[in-house]
UniProtKB/TrEMBL annotation:
This is Arsenate reductase. The lineage of its organism: Bacteria, Pseudomonadati, Bacteroidota, Sphingobacteriia, Sphingobacteriales. The keyword Oxidoreductase applies. One of its GO terms (molecular function) is arsenate reductase (glutaredoxin) activity. NCBIfam families: arsC (TIGR00014). Belongs to the ArsC family.
Amino acid sequence: MKILHNPRCSKSREALKLLEEKGVKPEVIKYMDDHLSLSDLKNIIDLLRIKPVQLVRTKESFWKENFAGKNLSDDEIVQAMIDFPQLMERPIVIEGDRAIIGRPTEKVIELLP
């Protein structure tokens, strides 16, 4: 199991704590420090079974100031999340061929065996 984790995000910290309380020691990927590759992010979006824009924190002021209202392609949205990872919803938990956005935090339990 992997968790895309932002230690500065309370929901991300809560999800990691919940997994650990359930006896899971996930691989922690600090995506804010080590940006995801294009192929990794596209794979995660595929595992989530969503469109790229559904992974964007559209209420984030940075999104509103720089991208909102523009007619962006899926590839442009993915690139924006690679360049500015703070735009991604978090946390994301991955188990095998499944992934989930941990909001609310309890959703991560759905991926437990």
